[in-house]
Amino acid sequence: MASKMQRDNFFQIKTYDPTHTCKEWHHENRTITSSFIARKYLKEIGSNRNGSLADFRDRVSVDLRAKVTLSQVKRAKRKAISLLDGDFKDQFKMMWDYCNEMDRTNPGNPNAAAWCNEKEPSQWTMSYFSSDAKSDMLLNNVCEV
Fold it and tell me: What is the pLDDT of residues 84-110, one digit of tens each?
């Protein structure tokens, strides 16, 4: 609490309460972008990929003390996973670079590009890998019948 001094145009503080009751993070901050969030929370997003977007948004808002929208968090999660896993296009280019390098360094060996062409894409690129279980043995062994 403060009051104006009698002889001057200044205020004098009478009582001081250091606790804040306002929420400082309800303001717009244009420097907080989805790319910034993705880089800052990269490890956390990588370890908790299936977490709730709303919970993550709330925690980011409190940590950064700024308004963060659900769409920002969704884009940040997509960017972080892309940074962690790499892009399928980059992986595909790396495979052909590898095949060309094999042809250049080992001219006596069979053509690496021909080897890649003979195989199904599911055997050499992650974009065609299946995440389905190949056997139900685990399910059968865990369950009691």
Answer: 877 666 766 777 777 777 777 777 666
